[in-house]
Amino acid sequence: MSYYEGCPELDAVLNKHKASANSMLSTAQSQLLCDTFSKVLAYLFSTNESAEGDVLNLNVEKVKTKISKWKKDIDDCLESFKESLQGKDELTDEDRYKQRLMEENVKEIKKIYDKLREEMDGVELDFQNAVRTYRSPIRQALNDISMLYDSENNVKGDFSGFENVSVYVHGIEDRGKGFKDSVRKIAEEGDLIIHIMDDSEEYQYVDVKTKEIKVYNNLSELQKETSLEDIKGRLHIIYDTENRNEHRQETSDDLAQRLNKMGLMNDRTQIDMFAHSYGGRRSLQFAIDYPDNVRSITTIGTPYETNTLAQGANNIRWFAEKFVKKDPKDDSGHLDFNKKNRNDIKGMEYSNAYTDMSNEPLSEDIHKLKAANQEVYEKLQKMEITAAAGYRKVDYYDPFTGEKTEMKTHSDDTVSVKSQNAEILGNLIDKRPRIEVKGRGLTDPGHVYEVKDKEFVELMKEVNKQQKNRSIR
């Protein structure tokens, strides 16, 4: 087959490029790559139109390197032809015509190859986005396999003996330090507190004899003085997410992996979850994913509905970064299946806490769950789920009489009471207490004081006490 009439030298090179292209497509087995090659190179030669194999092996950088090599082959072909003309004493009109034709064809072919190389950037982005979309179900599956293996082979972690475990999950752009003071007030004699941070862990043991809280920088330090088998109290885990703004699914996957390594994802350990703000969404996601491991959930200040401030930060990201000092683009690599819950940075899509709260009330997930998996929904119904709301009191002055009246605000300045009380989740929520918190306006929101509020601390303490001798079901 002739691609360029009168240029057999180019035909020979393009035939080699066709074979090379089809070889790459067969190796890569990417339909996206096949479609791109077929579309861009149609004017030059035909390529494989479908990926029929089972193993995806796409390396975009190697493809780009190969395309650059093709361009060099075309240049070399033209130079070789020009050198062959230089040996002649005098060029004929046919020689001159063929040289011009070769030059024009080479220019055209290189332009097509440049276009193909540019398209590879889009292929790479689309491929990375697609891979990240499917990462969560793969991670969940690996977690499930790991838990099954540990159960079948009686693999135990360092904390396998603990049956009553409380896990505390912080909110958006926060860390577990807010829970740290509160948990120290909750912990009783013989309890162990573990603060799991990005790169370290801290252990605090409430000594049974002295009733003092002893702090250890690592597990080895603790075990030199106290054997874990001798600790009979509750285990409190303050969990810092790897990324502050990470999507709730990312937290659920990470937390499950961590707890499994500790030996706490089994049919004996009963987990009571406590959360502030977006941490409540993270905790509910964990309960949806692992309903047999969670006994209760207690949240305060959680936006169960979509959130106005999150929508603002998500849609006007530069404003949130510059003036509100938030980082709505911070991401852990998670990509939600729901395309509404995505944003992008130069084509690289991502999902995080802001995208989640901007577009999806948690009622949507619950409705889907109820339709798709009634068994899990019924397990959620049996859990003790408490959605506490923080509110403030403000002074109201009657415009006619000037009299001052103290009124409850409808929000904690960040999340409405209605959203915090999870009214959209209906009878899934067992209790909806309201707690007065300090603070004033958006410059000093009551939201930030909720996790340390005395009433909420007492609520967490009471839940720990009530759940101590109950079973999961």
TrEMBL record:
Q: Sorted alphabetically, which Pfam families does this protein's record hold? A: Abhydrolase_1
Q: Which residues form the AB hydrolase-1 domain?
A: 251-333
Full protein name = Alpha/beta fold hydrolase
Carries keyword Chloroplast?
no
Keywords tagged on the record: Coiled coil, Hydrolase
- Coiled-coil ranges per the record? 99-133
Q: Name one GO molecular function term.
A: hydrolase activity
The organism's taxonomic lineage, starting at the top? Bacteria, Bacillati, Bacillota, Bacilli, Bacillales
Q: From which source organism is this entry?
A: Metabacillus fastidiosus
> Has the keyword Hydrolase been applied to this entry?
yes
